[in-house]
Amino acid sequence: MTVYIDPPAWPGHGRLWSHLVSDVSYAELHLFAAGLGVPRRAFERDHYDIPAHRYADAVRAGAVEVSSREVVRLLHGAGLRRRKGAWRTGRQV
User: What does DSSP assign to residue 40?
Assistant: First the structure.
């Protein structure tokens, strides 16, 4: 099982956030996130939002550190990328 995480660079709610993704399946991603104790509500379309203070926990658990561009490339390559509009209509893009 390999999941990937980008650096905490995305601002929101007074914090910085990372994106945790899988290049295999959402099931793999949900399993990894559950092992970290990340609530399912942190899942957004195709990734989990991970606060900066949990970044090191994810890496210690086996998440591979990659750039934000690499996260997007991995999602597209796996066919797991869901854009905002597609998520609302139920279509996967």
Answer: G
